[in-house]
Amino acid sequence: MNRLKELRDDKNLYQKDVAKILNMSQTGYSQYETETNDIPTEILKKLARFYNTSIDYLLYETDERKPYPKSVMKN
User: Fold this and answer.
1) Are the C-beta atoms of residues 53 and 38 closer than 8 Å to each other?
2) Tens of pLDDT along 15-41?
């Protein structure tokens, strides 16, 4: 199963709900879930924060769902 869909389903949300949070259309968001379009970096960051996970998890670079510790260098 697609990770974005899995995370969305875990929160009992519809695509239109996540699309609204990202300030985009449901169709645009759907293309991320179906991997029709690449996800821009800023959207990846928002999704990782929203789902409390890492970008690496969203991109299948790790199976570890928990987020990384916050950087002390971030403003």
Assistant:
1) no
2) 999 999 999 999 999 999 999 999 999
Structure-token pair, residue 10:
């875990």
**Which pair of tokens denotes residue 9?**
């389903």
Q: What percent of the chain has pLDDT over 90?
A: 83
φ, ψ for residue 16 (rounded to 5)?
-65, -30
Residue 60 CB coordination number (10 Å): 9
From first CA to last CA, the distance across the chain in angstroms is 35
Question: Could you write out the three-class secondary structure of the chain?
Answer: CCHHHHHHHHCCCCHHHHHHHCCCCHHHHHHHHCCCCCCCHHHHHHHHHHCCCCHHHHCCCCCCCCCCCCCCCCC
Residue 18 tokens read as 């996540």
